[in-house]
Design brief:
The chain is of the alpha+beta class. It has helices at residues 3-17, 20-24, 44-51, and strands spanning 27-35, 39-42, 56-70, 73-84, 89-101, 104-114. It has a six-stranded mixed β-sheet with strand order 2-1-6-5-4-3, with helices on one face.
């Protein structure tokens, strides 16, 4: 497994544990995170604020179904389940595109679709 894929696995593992330190250790200082139509954050501080969204409780269950890499870009597909504060459950599929620099995440674009 490449260093880039190891970083992405560590990042996703950190999210499943809500481990801010582990997640942030995978990022460059000037990281960008965009979810088209939802948000665009720049820098670790802004990224950190989005790790645990106020609309959810507990830790998400993240399952990665595929990970591919080419030219310092890693694409991870999978499923996520998370309990909302209102008691309902988010059941979604995701595709995360990670642009990497020196085995750190420089830019992340997240595509998320809720499955009803």
């Amino acid at each position: 497994m490449t260093e880039n894929k190891k970083t992405v696995e560590r990042y996703l593992d950190g999210f499943s544990k809500s481990d801010h330190e582990q997640i942030l250790s995978c990022l460059t200082e000037d990281v960008e995170w965009e979810m088209p139509g939802a948000f665009h954050h720049v820098g670790k501080r802004a990224f950190d604020k989005e790790i645990e969204n106020d609309a959810f409780v507990g830790r998400p269950t993240i399952t990665t179904t595929r990970m591919v890499e080419e030219n310092d870009v890693v694409v991870a597909e999978g499923q996520v389940r998370a309990k909302r504060k209102d008691g309902s459950v988010l059941n979604a599929v995701f595709c995360d595109v990670f642009a990497m620099t020196n085995a750190r995440i420089k830019r992340l674009t997240t595509y998320l679709a809720e499955v009803k």
